[in-house]
Amino acid sequence: MRHHRASLGLHPLAPVHDQHAQDGQQDLFWSRVRTTLREPFAEFWGVIIMILFGNGSVAQVLLSTGQAQGAPGGNGFGIWALGVMLGIYVAGDSGAYLNPAITFSNCLYRQLPWRRFPTYFIAQLLGGMVGSLIVYANYISAIDHYEGGHGIRTVPPATQATAGIFATYPQPFVTKASQFFSEFIASTILMFVIFALKDEANMGLAKSAHFFPLMLFFLIFGIGACFGWETGYAINFVRDFSPRLISYGLGYGKEVWSAGGYYFWVSKKSPSGIPMVAPWLGCMFGGFLYDVFIYTGKSPINSPYMGLSHLFHPRQEIRRKIEAEKELHMV
């Protein structure tokens, strides 16, 4: 078990100290699987919860349009923030990243093992797909009714389009530059504030771990209120790509990739790939800004040549990492 966890970049000793691992359950096959993949499972289910609340709220608001009795949740504003908060509670054991760009930035700036990234990324991607399938299964009859017939599936800017339940589509008048900037600045703010909330030297907010999900609720709510209208504020690759892929397979067709002037896809017609690229660049830039101007802890930015020493003196950096890992295991 320890060997398998180490190969995935997961801490090999973490499950040993779990109080639930002392009652003999670890001898069961599924218990061993669960213990080995506990963090990826947490990310998987955390993303599912996030998508269920987020896409579910969009579906209910859209599909109840025009009815005397609208959606019980009002206009659905802020439910994505609720989904993120609850997803973090579910995935707390893994770090609750729920977003590949955030995971990547933590690998880049906060010493999260790089070997852990592919495992988390796959778990997050699959979680987005499963969550989207559940939402679709729940609302399939309502979608048929709203679209005007069984099996009819349309994509914005069609009048009765329902593809927006699953993925983001930009306003038709917004230029490519504005689309990219909207996603980029929203993702930058997201990562910048998350690093601030996790910084123990910054008002001690990190010590109040139980309040972190609530703080993320306000953060996502604020980003949606200020930067959500033009593009739908994907700010998360798996929040957009996974549901988009599922909607493509469920009959919405290739238009899910080409809508909005190839808003999503990186092609010769449009080299932007905005919700696919901007969240990664924005989160990396947000982490960079925080570490340059505020963070005083261990970070490549606070190392010689702002981390470029890894390129100039790779052997020396490898030795430092090996020594640090040895000290960690000795403690």
Protein model, in words:
This protein has a single domain, classed as Glycerol uptake facilitator protein (Up-down Bundle), CATH 1.20.1080. The chain is built from 13 helices and no strands. It is globular. The protein has 331 residues and is an all-alpha fold. It is a multi-pass membrane protein.
**Main sheet overview:** none
Mean pLDDT across the residues is: 85
Count every beta strand, where a strand is a DSSP E run of 2 or more residues.
Answer: 0
> What CATH architecture do you see?
Up-down Bundle
Q: Which properties best describe this structure?
A:
transmembrane helix; Glycerol uptake facilitator protein; mainly alpha; globular; transmembrane; MIP/Aquaporin; 331 residues; MIP; transport
Describe the secondary-structure layout.
Elements: H1 2-7, H2 29-36, H3 38-63, H4 79-90, H5 100-109, H6 116-147, H7 176-198, H8 212-227, H9 237-252, H10 255-262, H11 274-293, H12 309-312, H13 314-330
Helix pairs in contact: 3-4, 3-6, 4-8, 5-6, 5-11, 6-9, 7-8, 7-11
